[in-house]
Structures are given as C-alpha cells and as structure tokens.
Design goal:
The complex is a heterodimer of chains A (152) and B (569).
Chain A: H1 2-9, H2 18-29, H3 34-44, H4 48-57, E1 69-74, H5 77-81, H6 84-95, E2 108-113, E3 125-127, E4 130-132, H7 137-148
Parallel strand pairs in A: 1-2
Antiparallel strand pairs in A: 1-3, 3-4
Helix pairs in contact in A: 1-2, 3-4, 6-7
Chain B: E1 2-8, H1 11-16, H2 18-27, E2 33-37, E3 49-53, E4 56-60, H3 67-74, H4 86-89, H5 108-113, H6 118-124, H7 128-138, H8 150-158, E5 166-171, H9 180-187, H10 189-203, E6 207-212, H11 217-233, E7 237-238, E8 241-242, E9 244-249, H12 259-266, E10 290-294, H13 295-307, H14 309-312, E11 323-330, E12 336-341, H15 346-353, E13 361-366, E14 372-375, H16 385-390, E15 399-404, H17 409-423, H18 429-446, H19 452-467, H20 472-476, H21 479-487, H22 489-497, E16 510-514, H23 524-528, H24 550-554, E17 560-564
Parallel strand pairs in B: 1-2, 5-6, 5-10, 6-9, 11-15
Antiparallel strand pairs in B: 1-3, 3-4, 7-8, 11-12, 13-14, 13-15, 16-17
The chains are: A alpha+beta (152), B alpha/beta (569).
C-alpha cells in the first residue's frame, strides 16, 4: 500500500479532486479496493460512503481486479447497427466469459462499452486501449488468438 | 519534389493501422519529415497518407502497412491514390474543420502559420461587449444539442459581477455514434482553446475548465500539450490576467453531458443534475457564475471572429447559421466526419456525402439516444434546428447513423432505451423507473411476447417521462421510441400481431436453416457452432441454437441463412 500513499500524496486534499484521486488509484492498482476507498476517504476527510457513492456512480471505476487484457467491445450506435451483439457473443464463446467477467486465470476481462468514437470502423473493440476495427468473426478470432499466445 | 509526409493518426487512423505505417516510414530511411496529423474526415479511406509536394498534395488511401506500398508512396506512384468523390467535395463546406488533419495538431507554430490566434488578437483589440455582440450577430447556436444562442449565453455571464467566473468546455461526448468533438480535439486542439480564450475576453471569465471523457486519451493528450504551449507563448494572459486552464477527465457517465450534472462532477461529486433555476450563469461551479459550451461551439468562435458575425451569418438558414459537423456512420459506403452548411438536406448527406445507394437506407437516427429517426420519405428535410425538431428528431451533437433496409427499428429503439435506462442517474422517478419499464416492454416485443396493449403503453408513458424529468436525459430518453412509433409503427405491429421481424434481426423471431442445395458438406459450420446445434446431416436444432451467426460467417457458400421463426411469412 506504500504506492497508494505516494499516489494520493500528489493530489490536493480539496474534494473536487476526488474523481481525479480515484482515477489515479485505479490507474495504479487496476481497480478500487475496499482499502483504497478507506484511504481515499481519509485523504479527503469525508465519509467512506461518500467515496463509495461516487465510485458506484461512474462506469469507469472497477471494484474487482480486471484481467491482464481488458477487451472492450464497443456497443455504440454504429457498432450496434453493424452487429456488436454478435461480436460480444463470439468473444464470450471463445473465452468463456460474459460481459463484466474475468476468466479464471485472470488473463481476459470482457466489457461492453458505450462508444469508443471510431464509428466509421464499426464494429470495433479495444484490447487494453488498442482499437481493432471492421471486425468479422474470422478477424476477431485471429486477434484473440494472438493475445492468447502472448504475441502482442 | 516531396516536402513532407503526413499520416492521419487520429484515433480512427490509428485503429485502422496508421501506427504500423509510421513505423515502416521510419525504417525506410526516407529523408522527408513524417508528421502525425489528425483527421481529414474521410475515415472510410483510413489509413490515409498525404504527401506534400511543391505542386500540391497527393493523397493515398487505405494504405497497406508493407514496404511495397510505402515505396510506391515515396515514388509518388499512381497506385492507391485517393481522390475524394466530387459528390462529397461539392456539397461540403470546410470552415471549422479547414485545418483538421492538415496541420500538426501539437505544433502551435504551425497553427499560427495558418492563421491561428489571429482571431484572439483581433478579439482582444475589440471591446469585450463588441465581441459578445459579434457572436450574437453571427446567429451561432450551441452545437451540443439544445441549440441555445451562444451570444445570448455569453451576455449572461458577461453581465455577472464576481471575483471568479468559469468558462467550461463540454468535451464529454457521450452520445454513442458521435465523434465530432473527439476529432476536433485530436486534430486542432488549439482552435478549441483559442475559442475559449476569446470567450474569456468576451465574458470576463477568470478560469477555464475542459471536461473531456477519459475514453479519449489522444484528445486529452493533445489538449494538455496545447495548453502548455499556450502558457509558454503567453496567450493565456487576457487583459493582464493569467487564465488558469484546467483539463478534467470524465469518468464515464452519459448524464454528465448535461450542464448541471457536469458541474457536480467537476466538483468531485456524483454527476446528478441540479434544479434550474438557478442557471449555471447565475450559480455554477462552486456557486460561481459559470458558462458551458460544447467543443464544436468553441471551435466555431475563431472562424466567426475572423470573418465577422455578419459574414458568418450569410451561411445557413433563417434560424440556424453557419456549418455543422456530422459524424456519419452506419449503413453507408463512406462513413466519416463531414462539415456541411446548415440547410443541406438529409438526403444529400446520406447519398452524396455518405455514398449510400438510393433505396438502401430506410431511416437515419440523428441526435443519438436523445434524438429520433427520420424516415427515407422525409429525407428532403432541411438540416436545421427547427425543421428537425418539427419531425420529433433533434440536431443533437451531430451523430448521424444511417439505418439500412435490413435493420429492425424496434430493436434499434430497444437499444437506445437500454442505453438511457442504464445511464439514468436515478434522481427523477419518471426517468429512473419509466425508462426501465419502457425497456422491459420493448424487450417483450422483440422477444415476440408483446401485445397491442404493450404498444399502447409505450405511446402513453413516453410523454409522461418527458414531463416528469428534471434534465435533458429524461426529457429526451423516450424520443427514439416515440419517433419510431410515429414513422415505423408497422414494424411494432408486425412484432406483436404476426410475431415476425421482417429484418430478421430479433433472435426470438428468427430461425437458422441450411439450404441443402447450396451446402457442400464441408462441416465448417458444425465446427464453428459453439453449442453443437448442427447435426451431422446438416440440420440446425433451433432449440439449441443461440442465433450467434457463427455458421453463417464461416459458410463459404452462403448456404446458412436466417428465416422467420415458426413458418411465419
């Protein structure tokens, strides 16, 4: 937890920096743990329930540890029209995880996100922030295989 | 003679492979400078490379990441040259996006060389009230969705006496299917900031916030670089006062695009909306007078000041002036970012700019989950705030999705309600519970369990949610349903009375079948099926089948297809 103190140490104690603090902690730890919530509440001298309230409000904040590779299947309008539901199904089938889940080995997480802003390449997904566009089943399975083999 | 090489490396370009192309250029030891630029709007041709030569630019589209293509470009070969269709270029009017994708986004010098910060200098030489007057004269209306007159909003903040006043840029582009603001921030961050600095002078604001969604890492990066360059150059000194530019990352909540919710979020709180009045210009961030405009609105300001409000107002319709950016996507040939004069028709955008084939599109969805659909027989409607509203759609921020003939409007409405029901902050009961009830009803209909009463229920509850909600999210959430019920009621009725989805989209109303005459018994479908629903004699067991389309995708002969369930015609 020493790293956490360092992360928080650089953030002002004024409450408008709460979201910034949560983002920094998540960036550092990968998610927001119970301990982090208590520490952050302490940092801003506010009740931990208030911190939890903000965490649960915003989609960005994760309360469980994500996998090594976070697959975000875009379900924006353009992607939805172009079949993002199928993309989600195919990822689920290939990796045996559903939306919001992480596999047993902690390698892959799957989440459905609102819009990655690459609508002209629909359907798209991103793996740890790297965007893959114009997906079909073949291309998708090829990409997943690369990550499974650790070739990326 | 080649002067330098530009690679379109906005988020779209990178996703299409611009990074790999950049690597090859670097390895090729070409003597020319290679710069990463933003988006020129022709996303369908990504990755795009522009070669600047003495005699003008040569573009290459859909560039492959291999040495052969790169050598071809370095030799200015004819292969793979990209020339935008005349049907598009003749209808476009590039003013706000004139520099997007043409200059290095993070070079303040290049922005200056192309006329950057001249508008700021001009504005600073004017009385602040004259700047507000000019913005009023231009007729510019907020580009974020609601279309409130920008000059009027500015005059509210200018009239406020306070030791702190905040100018806030709404860069929380949460509409799924919209990417205009992302593109502007990535491609010309200085233009957005210049617009804000002019706003500071005009309104007497003391501090600047940019609230940008965290899902846009490149936009955030470029904005931060631009802000630090501004500081070095001293452009942030306005009337003897140094203006603090603060860039805040959103955390993924659609409702934060609503201005009072955004203010709560900026204060580090849950992003729920506040009662209005007081309006933000009276009491906003931490109780200080605050003004929120969207990215595209601010990006319009330098253009407007340079040419003057009256000249700006020459383009457009009676009530809607200037140009508008649209993120064009969906079932069209050439998706991308387009800038068009107000008053153009939807048909021109879809067919001439988007390259859709006549008759292939049955509607456009405009304004995202807050907007509505416009059916094909109304495509001659003028694109302006008031005409779109008359059809139950809205200008919105500028997402424009073409919906092909083979899509289901009921499913599309369900999709939007799924989004708004999840994004409703929960403060107002009508929005929180109402959107959920609408979603459940739509789910029943798409599953073939709907009745006529369900359709009547949707017609009844929509207007009530609009009335009973505090902010724009709830007030517009029923729009996609109301509007599809208005123009595509026959699709709803087909789902509830015939239990049929003509578009063959709604899984519960569809079965999969293998055409024995086309099948070559290659067994690829059997291997691909994740639930073993295909027998050795190529018959699909539809009670096992999850309609995942894997078999359709792998079949080399198009022998597998979706048909109406239960023998429905």
């Amino acid at each position: 937890m020493s790293g956490l103190n360092e992360v928080l140490g650089s953030i002002e104690k004024e409450s408008s920096f709460l979201i910034k603090a949560l983002q920094s902690v998540q960036h550092h730890e990968g998610f927001i743990s119970d301990e982090s919530i208590l520490k952050i509440a302490d940092h801003f001298s506010i009740p931990s329930a208030e911190v939890e309230g903000v965490v649960s409000f915003y989609a960005q904040f994760k309360r469980t540890k994500p996998g090594k590779y976070v697959i975000a299947v875009c379900d924006g309008t353009a992607c939805h029209i172009k079949g993002s539901t199928l993309i989600e199904n195919w990822v689920s089938d290939a990796l045996k995880i559903k939306n919001g889940e992480t596999d047993e080995t902690g390698t892959f997480s799957l989440e459905l996100v609102a819009c990655l802003g690459c609508c002209s390449l629909a359907p798209v997904m991103s793996v740890n922030g790297r965007v893959y566009g114009k997906l079909d089943r073949k291309e998708l399975l090829k990409i997943l295989k690369k990550y499974q083999k650790g070739e990326v | 003679m080649i002067k330098r090489i530009k690679i379109g490396a906005g988020s779209c370009g990178i996703a299409a492979g611009a990074g790999e192309i950049l690597d090859i250029f670097k390895k090729s030891f070409s003597p020319y400078e290679v710069v990463e630029v933003g988006c020129i709007g022709h996303c369908y041709a990504e990755p795009l490379v522009e070669v600047e030569t003495d005699s003008g630019s040569v573009f290459y589209g859909n560039v492959k990441a291999d040495e052969k293509s790169i050598n071809n470009i370095l030799a200015l070969g004819v292969e793979g040259r990209f020339i935008p269709a005349q049907s598009r270029t003749s209808k476009e009017l590039l003013k706000v996006t004139a520099l997007a994708g043409r200059i290095d986004p993070v070079s303040i010098e290049e922005y200056e060389l192309n006329g950057g910060y001249l508008a700021l200098k001009k504005a600073l030489s004017m009385e602040s009230s004259a700047v507000v007057e000019d913005v009023k004269k231009s007729g510019l209306r907020g580009r974020g969705g609601a279309g409130f007159p920008t000059g009027l909003k500015w005059s509210f903040l200018a009239a406020k006496q306070s030791d702190r006043k905040f100018l806030i840029c709404n860069a929380d582009e949460g509409d799924p299917g919209a990417f205009m603001d992302r593109s502007m921030m990535e491609s010309v961050p200085h233009q957005v900031l210049e617009g804000m600095l002019i706003g500071v002078h005009a309104t007497g604001a003391t501090e600047i916030f940019i609230y940008c969604r965290a899902e846009y890492p490149l936009a955030l990066k470029n904005l931060k670089i631009a802000a630090s360059q501004i500081e070095k150059k001293g452009y942030d000194m306005i009337n003897g006062r140094k203006i603090n530019i603060m860039i805040k990352e959103g955390a993924g909540a659609f409702v934060c695009g609503e201005e009072t919710a955004m203010i709560n979020s900026l204060e580090g709180k849950r992003g729920t909306p506040r009662f209005r009045p007081p309006f933000p210009t009276d009491s906003g961030y931490k109780g200080y007078p605050s003004l929120i405009n969207n990215v595209e609105t601010f990006a319009n300001i330098p253009v407007l000041i340079n040419e003057g409000g009256e000249s700006y107002a020459l383009i457009g319709t009676q009530g809607s002036k200037g140009t508008k950016l649209f993120a064009l996507a969906g079932d069209i040939k050439n998706p991308g970012l387009v800038e068009v004069p107000m008053g153009i028709t939807i048909g021109e955008i879809v067919y001439d700019l988007g390259g859709a084939e006549k008759g292939s599109v049955k509607a456009v969805q405009i304004g995202g989950p807050s907007g509505g659909c416009i059916p094909e027989d109304k495509f001659d409607i003028s694109v302006d705030y008031d005409s779109l509203r008359s059809l139950g759609a809205i200008m919105g921020s500028g997402g424009l999705i073409a919906v092909g003939k083979n899509r289901c409007m009921v499913e599309t409405a369900r999709y939007f309600l799924d989004f708004t029901a999840k994004e409703s902050c929960g403060k107002c009961t009508f929005c929180r519970v109402g959107t959920k009830r609408m979603l459940e009803t739509l789910e029943l209909i798409t599953k073939g369990k709907g009745t006529l009463e369900h359709v009547e229920f949707l017609e009844d509850i929509g207007p009530k949610i609009i009335k009973g909600s505090l902010c724009g999210l709830g007030q517009s959430a029923p729009n996609p349903v109301i509007s599809t019920l208005r123009f595509f009621k026959h699709e709803y009725l087909e789902h509830v009375t015939d239990k049929k989805c003509s578009a063959l989209i709604c899984n519960a109303l569809v079965e999969l079948k293998i055409d024995k005459d086309k099948c070559i018994k290659c067994k690829l479908c059997i291997k691909a099926c994740p639930v073993n629903a295909i027998s050795d004699d190529f018959i699909v067991n539809n009670s096992l089948c999850t309609r995942c389309n894997s078999c359709i995708e792998v079949c080399p002969k198009d022998a597998v297809g979706r048909i109406p369930a239960g023998g429905a015609k």
